[in-house]
Amino acid sequence: LKNPNIDTGMGLERIATIMQGTNSIFEVDTIRAILDEVSKVAKIEYGKDEKSDISMRVITDHVRSVSFMISDGILPSNEGRGYVLRRLLRRAAKHGKSLGINNAFLYKLTDMVIDNSCGNYAELAEKRDYIKKVIKLEEERFDETIDSGMQILNEFIENLKINNETILSGEKAFKLYDTYGFPIELTEEILEEKDMKVDLEGFNKEMQNQRERARAAREETNYMGAEDTILNKIPLEIETKFNGYDTLHTTSKVKILIKNEEFVSTMVEGDKGVIVTENTPFYAEMGGQIGDHGIISTDSFKAEVVDCKKNVAGKILHFVKVLSGTIGVDHQVTLNVNEARRNNIRRNHTATHLLNEALRKVLGEHVHQSGSYVDDERLRFDFNHFEAPSHEELKKVEALVNDEIVKVLNVQTQSMSLEEAKETGAIALFDNKYKDEVRVVSVGDFSKELCGGTHVSNSGEIGLFKIISEAGVAAGIRRIEAVTGPKAIAYVEAKNDLIKEIGNKLRCSEKEIIHKLDLQALELKEKDKEIAELKSKLAGSAEDEILNGFQEVKGIKLFTGVLKDVDGNALRDLADKIRNKGGECVVVLGSVVEGKVQFVSMTTKEAIAKGVHCGKIIKEVAAIAGGGGGGRPDMAQAGGKLPEKVEDAIGSCVSILEKLVK
Question: Are residues 333 and 349 located together in one domain of the fold?
């Protein structure tokens, strides 16, 4: 450096610590205000217990960090910056639980963070509701993960204690992570509190095995195969130029013929293989857009192009089936793209650009494309968002796209440097690697993206845009499927036909359908209520018979019974009534409803003291009927697959109870 400098690590908070004469950044006024709010929510005074103090400091620090991260456009995910955000949120939530805070609370603390910082960071106040919403949803997701994962982890911990062990196997830790979404860091932290640890080497080995399985699966499904496939051995000096932006028809020379994994000099009628030409109007699958179909021909030769792809070196490959004649290397051929199919693809591809921008305008600027697929039938668009868009939001998105379609906006393409493209505000995919010169596609002033695909000349050619589905495909990733043009019109017509058919079935006009369905729903609700009452009476009629038919096992009354068409709720109610009237007892009941077996077991405190455990009883009983289950010492339930074995299963209760009672 021209001038020598010393990096003292004196960040804003450390300077504030000196200026305010405090011993810790957590004593600085703005941060202490957040810490006090955490203390208030936890109902624990700060400074009284070191363990609680650590948790409160962790929460204070992390809630500040995540508020700024979300404001900067980062969302919780399983990779990169999003994973750091998710870990911070979940660690803070976990420390909240250790303080006895069992409900979502972090999102409430963001108000204090924003109020203390918005003077210098105005964007925090502008995005207040958005920040709170993202944090709240992530907390709720984590609660679901904690509830399912903690139950399993606690079982693992109990088994470790029983066996006098302190290391959780990598296999079990991986099961928690892979099956229940339980973060390995959280598993480590919980075990550490109990003087235990994870076999991280074993966990990493399981993780690597999974990656290798996924890689092997990808290789099996990738027909392009490994690097040494014949498709990737085309000489680099062979040029294949795409000219399909401007034309769908061209004449060119055949440079390469491939058949049966070999380079050949000719192909004849009936052959399937690959043709490589100097020039081609056929678009090779790339950027989510599928390859073109069409015909390659001469006066005496005709081949159907069934797909078009690129090899690893970027050579354009026409996958063909020879319909007639013979073709040889260096022959001159005519290439014709299926125009109707290309037009459908172009409509769908331009529509994805409009959809991308519409989502950003309706849901927020944080939205970015996470994947897409465009063919001649429909379009599929994946994007990041922290919750499912509401019906109203999707209607707004669809309406916004159609508004831009009817404006008949010009679609323009320009080649420019990557830096120029970014300066113009063109949207690029985060993970894509771009060349120094890129192609920018603009739809009027509405949308501007880096894209190498084929598009309509104006938005009016799309005709109509219709969303047909929206769903989640991964944590934080949503997927929209839509149709355009004639396909969209056909979709709307099919919906109209369906509505008319429903009206005919209900014998009412289209306007009266909802009212008619509401009336039928009320009628069904009443009938369900009547059926439930009848089932309850049916179960009740068996109560006296079961109470009078008990067996005594080592001083404990055993009440058993097999019922028919009594559902789980009624079965539990009946078992509870019998338990309350039976004194020191065990109740085990079975029922078959629509071919499905259900078991329930209940017992009293006195019986538990003698060794009775309903979870153990029900596990053995259900196994006989081809099922499984478990539960607490005082109550357990299970299912089964073999209705014909229910009597045998219930009959085994005496011997099971004899083994348990001390």
Answer: no
Question: Contact at 8 Å (CB) between 204 and 173?
Answer: no
Helix segments in 507-583, DSSP class H = 513-548, 568-581
pLDDT digits (tens, 9 = 90+) for 281-319: 999 999 899 999 999 999 999 999 999 999 999 999 999
In single-letter form, the type of residue at position 290 comes to I
- Predicted confidence (pLDDT) per residue in 607-655, tens digit: 999 999 999 999 999 999 998 887 899 999 999 999 999 999 999 999 9
Whole domain around residue 472: which residue ranges? 343-493
Write the DSSP string, 85-154: HHHHHHHHHHHHHHTT--S--HHHHHHHHHHHHTTT-HHHHHTHHHHHHHHHHHHHHHHHHHHHHHHHHH
DSSP state letter for 260: T
Q: Where among 141, 165, 189 does a domain terminate?
A: 165
Which tens digit of pLDDT belongs to each residue from 552-598?
A: 999 999 999 999 888 888 889 899 999 999 999 999 999 998 888 99
CATH of residue 455: 3.30.980.10
Domain presence at residue 427? yes
Q: Of 398, 386, 385, 275, whose CA–CA distance to 328 is shortest? A: 275
Q: Which residues pair with 328 in a beta bridge?
A: 266
Quick one: CA torsion of 559, 562, 564, 565, rounded to 10 degrees?
60
DSSP 3-state assignment of 397? helix
Q: Count up the domains in the chain and report the number.
A: 4
Tell me the CATH number at 606: 3.10.310.40
Q: How far is CA 524 from the centre of its chain?
A: 35
**Mode of pairing for the β-strands spanning 585-593 and 369-374:** unpaired
Sheet with 411-417: strands ordered across: 411-417, 437-443, 447-450
pTM of the full predicted structure? Answer: 0.66
